[in-house]
Structure formats: C-alpha cells, structure tokens
Amino acid sequence: MKGVALLLVMLVIWYFAGMFHQTILMILAVCFLVFLPALMLLAFYQRKHLHVTLQKPKVIAFKKIEKELAVLAENTSRLPVNRYRLKWRLRYTTDKKALRKKLSGCAGSRTMNDDNLSFLYLQAPYCGVIEVQLCRITVYDPLSILSSSRRLHESGQILVFPVEKPLHLEVPLTGRYDNLPVAETHSSKSGDDHSEVRLIREYRPGDLTRHIHRNYSARTDTIWVKEFSKENDYIFDLLLDTTVSAVGTDTWDAFYEIVFSVVIALLRQDIYLNVYWYDQNKHGMVRLPVTNENEAAEMLAQLYLADKTCTAEALYHDLSPEQEGLMIINTRLEWYFSGQPVYHFHKELVEEELSTHSFRL
Predict the structure, then answer these.
(1) Long-range own/partner contacts, residues 283-289 (CB < 8 A, 24 or more apart)
(2) What is the pLDDT of residues 23-80, one digit of tens each?
(3) CA distance linking residue 68 with residue 269, whole number of Å
(4) Beta partners for residue 358, in sequence order
(5) pTM of the predicted protein model
(6) Which domains, and CATH codes, for the chain?
(7) What is the largest CA-CA distance in the chain?
(8) Which of 10, 196, 214, 348 places its Cα 20 to 30 Å from the Cα of 83?
(9) The sheet that has 117-122: what strands, in order across it?
C-alpha cells in the first residue's frame, strides 16, 4: 500500500512538472524514479543476506499450555534489517489441515545475538506431533515501502505431551497374579529390602532412622542414609493395539492420554512395564521397558514418531502366546487386562473420565 501511494505521488509530481514546466518538480520526479529501484535493490540485498532458522528443531510442549517457538535471524550484511515477516505452517501428522501463521521481527547487523530472536506463541489442542515448516520470508526496506521474498525449507517438530491426570487405580497384587507371567520380579528399584545397599544419600524427611549410616554421618557432620535394593516389583506387559484404521487426531489424542495416565499410575504403585506396539518402519514389534516417569515420557515420544499402521494379523503374529491378553489399550479407547474389560473411554470425555473415575484391575 505504501508503495502504491508513493507511486501515485510520483505520478502527480511528474504531471504537474510537465504542465507547469517546473524544473524543481522535474528533478523531484526523477529522484523518485531513482529512489524506488534503490529501495527494491536494498530489500533484495538484505533478503539475500538474512538467514532464519528454528532455534530448536525439536520442541517439547504440553497440551493446552502456551508454548513459545523461537526463530533465530542471522544477518550477514553490513546493514541492519529493520523488518521481516515469516510465514509458518503448522500441521499435526495425523491431520491434513494446516494452520498458517505469520510472524514479524527485526534483525541487527551482528551475526549472533539474543536480540535477533523472534517468538511465535502456540497452544496445542491435542497430544501428538506437530510438524512446523517455515514457508516464506519477506524482507522490507528501511521505510517498509517495498519488499523482497523467498521460499524457505526450514522444518521442525513439536512433541505435545498430555498433562498428568490424577488417575485412581487399584491393583490388588497380593496373591492374585502369582501364576501369571505378569508376576515377574525386578531388583533395581530403591526400597526397604536389606539384601543389598544400592547407594548412600543425604537424609530426607520421612526416612527411617535405622537406615542412617552413622559412621559416614559422623565423619561428614551431615546425616546420610543407606538406600537398599527392593525386591518383588511386578512387571506388566502392555500392548498398544493400533489396528483400527481411519483414526482422527482427536481419537489419537484420547489414546495418548489414556496410555500415559495408565503407565504413570502403575509406576507410582511400583509396577514396571514392558510396552509393545507394532512399528511399520521396523516391520515388527517394538518393546520398550518403562521403569520411571522419564522413561514413560521417552516411550510416548517414540510412540508418537512410529508408523503405527498395522493389521490385527501383523500385530498378534509377533506377540508371544504367553503375552496375549495381559493388558491391552486399543485405538477404540478400550482397556483390557487379563482378558477382561477394564473400561471403555469416550474421546469427548476422556480427560474427565481419567480424573474422576476409579479403576480396578
């Protein structure tokens, strides 16, 4: 718009200069003719020397919580860039619809500076993977009259995790699963068994006084306690059934919410898991042991990035007979344990169901 207005002013000046034979107006009109190409060349020069990249190609975000995406602008020219504009495209990997956003910023003449960061703020409505692509950059001249643009091929990912839900889960382990393959033991988690000292650490409120390492505490003037290995932790096999086709982004979101909530609830009852799913890229079953909350997050990230397309024949062909039916969560949002249904979730109410219902295995 500014460029059109300037062109109209130049034409008016040229017209009056010709009508009234005013030398000053003629000189001014010629200056305008030279000025516009100079601005265009300057914008082209600055666009050629301005390089933008995502500060982090992979970003962690949480569902419905605002997250900032940072873009670093590197200006290799000797002139500062007063204004540029980026066009983004954001798209869930499970959805063909793309969300287009624009971001404006400015960049100085120094090549690396925190002031050259621009931010886009986003609230992700679903769990999963958002593909981020920088589509086009437009650089404006110092007066923001003319501009020059080019296409970009910079891309990245946002891994959107669910916010932890207070899932109430009852697991009456004593004597119930002793004859099932689920009742395996694990001996690398800290606890109260005195068979082996796992480590020595500083005292925390709630530690038993009989576990205090008296000799070491006396030498260091700090209270230290002995932490022992714990025996008889249960290990569950969790199969993620993704054989249902044509699953939408909202259904995947509910599926991820259920899986993460169930895994965290079991971990907090000292139950470890072997999580299985079929990965088309690896042409077979993936097995991932989960023994803490960090590994649970890593498991979910790997699940996001896997190609989970499979048939029931392919899924259960790679599953050993003793594992079938122990614990299954499928993309119909059904939860089974030991061949018995635990609960059938509804994608519109899944967050409420996870937070308010009580489940029993």
Answers:
(1) 284/318, 285/315, 285/318, 285/319
(2) 776 777 677 677 778 888 888 888 898 888 998 999 999 999 999 888 888 888 888 8
(3) 35
(4) 168
(5) 0.74
(6) 50-161 (2.60.40.2030), 168-185+233-360 (no CATH), 189-230 (no CATH)
(7) 107
(8) 10
(9) 50-54, 67-75, 117-122
